[in-house]
Specification:
By secondary structure, the protein is mostly beta strands. The chain has a domain of 312 residues: Porin. It has four helices and 30 strands. It has an 18-stranded antiparallel barrel. The protein has a two-stranded antiparallel ribbon with strand order 12-13. The protein has a two-stranded antiparallel sheet with strand order 14-15. A hairpin with a 2-residue loop joins strand 22 and strand 23. It starts with a helix and ends with a strand. This is Capsule assembly Wzi family protein. It comes from Labilibaculum euxinus.
Amino acid sequence: MIFKYFKNVFVLSILLLGVVSSYSQKREITYEAQVMSQFSDKGTMPFWLVSNKYGIIPNENSGVVNLRIYSDSHVNKQGLKFNYGTSIIGSQGGESEVFIDELYASAIWNGVSVDLGMQHRDVQFDGLSVTNNDLLYSGNARMYPELKFQLKDFISVPFTNNLLWVKGSFSNGIMLDDRYVDKTNVHHKNAFLRIGKKEGLSFTIGLDHYVQWGGTSPKWGDLGGFDSFVDAVLVREGKVLVDKNGNISITESYNKSGNHIGQNMFEFSYSTSKIESVLSFKNMYEDKSGDFKHINKVKDWNMSFFLKFKESKLISSFIYEYYYTKDQGGYSIRPNHPIEPVIGFDRYFSNGVFQSGWTNHQRIIGLPLFTSSLNDGMVSGITNNAIVAHHFGITGVVGKFKYKTLLTFSENYGQALLVNDGKGNQEENYSKSYTYPDGLAQQSYLMEVIFPRWKAVPFEVLASIAIDRGKYLDNNIGFQIKLVKKGILTGKRY
């Protein structure tokens, strides 16, 4: 029922916004066509040729065509802005595939935006970050359709002399891939508060929360309904689940309803006419580990330092990032507590009820250094979510050539495992044991070059080389050639 309603709203809203936009005083429709070919000596792609590409690059040697059509933003007489767009992917690799990458319509008024569909998020840190400055939604997987209400940019709080700014969003979406819980819903909300003006020093604090809920489980049946949505939004405790044979699960009844993941963000920014710098800290949590009374136990975090030289060419921007997820929310056993017998042991992006976890179309939605496992073409769990990583990225210009280079060092520990005291009892400190106790070292490298435009060539040419070396991924080297053509499909409309 929820899926049918969402689909109808989606179609009707796109039609409505398309009609309304035709009455705007002027409208440009822009197109972008990309043709990509990627190949490697192993026949499968290195990490940085497929990661953070919104799932459009197959893992095999392949050719991909991406056609994108989108409108610019114009204001009508009522002060409303309208945007819409779509992009379609065709790929030929291990198998042929055609799918919709983006399909969206937006209306914006006084800084408040209503967005419907699938639209790529804005690129952060010049595309240098492992996670696009978001541990939970990096752009590594295909988008799912959603209805979102948001303050798209920071807006000034009245009577604060532009010293206090706020931003936030509230949305619900639905996953349409082949997954364990069919038609899983995703609720998302966040809120950010910034202190300081746009120029100079500012401090931002933010809360970000996702929860998978609803859908149809092959074991537990229908998990949806309005009550489940309210439980997800308000982060309530779940209910006892009962299957058709009378078997029960108390996992959700003593935890939270649905699969909750979240991050807290603390960010310092300093900006002048010459430089932009950002120092950010984020911590990750799942389910009850995110409760404020347990938040002091969360030790998994990400630190990023980004520096942009607005007038520099050889080095235009630089990033360093550190990721640590071995703690998994800590671990404490309270066997005599009827509501909270276990806190921690979060197994990030995994869930016992929503077994396909925080993935979409077989790709990790958040931190792409995590790895999922497949069973008959369906994600059945996350096999590598305990990692320590250092990442570097640089962009710049050499002569007339633009470049971007990424270098990622990671130690991969697999999953955190429970250990016992030799008498059959579980120890409280599970972190002594992992799938790979000593860690598997891995290095992944990318160099991308954008060639200068030649008058005889009507498109932009990009070339990339990516290399994997280490003990976790196969040693591999891969190449990509991309041709890009942009233009105006239609001009002014009256």
